[in-house]
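Researcher: Please predict.
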Amino acid sequence: MNTKKLIGTSMIALLVVAMGAGMAAAYTIDGDLSDWGVNVDGGNWALDATWEPNAGVQFQVEDNVDPDSASEWHGVGTTTLAYATGKHIAGTGSSHVIYDEARVPPSSTSIYKGWAYPVGGDNTAEKYDQEAMYVDDTNSTYLYFAIVLSCNAKDYAGDLGLDITGTTSDGYAYEYGVAIWDNAGTYTASSRTIYSMPTWSTCTYVPESSPARITAGNPVGTATVAYKNIGDQESLSVATAAKDTYIIEGKIPRSAFGIDAPAPGDMPLGKWHYTVVCGNDQIPIPEFGVLAVPIIALMGLVFFMRRRKS
């Protein structure tokens, strides 16, 4: 194959990838994660495959206490070991790594400083455990997210933060937020307000997990969010109020961000934040690399061909 044909073939391949990103998967917002490729409802939580999402979906799992922390975890005023340990993996699609979950910093003002997450004491900690988070930012119209947690969002949910700019120099760690918590408890495929430049509350027990909930801001749009109780999935010896697992699933229109609207691939997992209102569990969500559409390379090929033609 000559150079011209090779370049032409490469350009077609790149355009196919770019078109694929624009027509990336859409999800039905109903609290059922099967369309994400995730099998937490009825699956075996001890298997990686249960948690692994479809290709291109970024995720992090923090089910129960990190196994590496189990021997040192204890409850309030006791020496009780971890009530349960679980998967701690993160990555994209079926590609992931095992990681060690960070502890409450020793410098914390919380009484739980140095403790493993989820903090809270004995087997009641399961009631506030954030199990996993999934993000798909490849669709050109919506940002999609899904959260697996043990707490009843009607009472304990935090709000969802989005770091659009990737910097704190503008005075905001999260320039946008979605009001997930709804004190009316109406959690069936309903609307949630998207705010710009929101004011946030501080987590009540572990401030390092902040921000918690939006207290003020500028409404700029509406996200569709579903909330679903999928029942007892782990059969743990924990308090009755801590047994059930809940799913929060949603889609956020890119149009709500106006001129700040991120392009597909510009909102990796590291730019999202979610915690329960007390802050005794969160997902640190470090940024994991994703396959970006190499538009710059495509532009370079076009320029090269034009130069050759001239």
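Model: The chain has one domain: 26-294.
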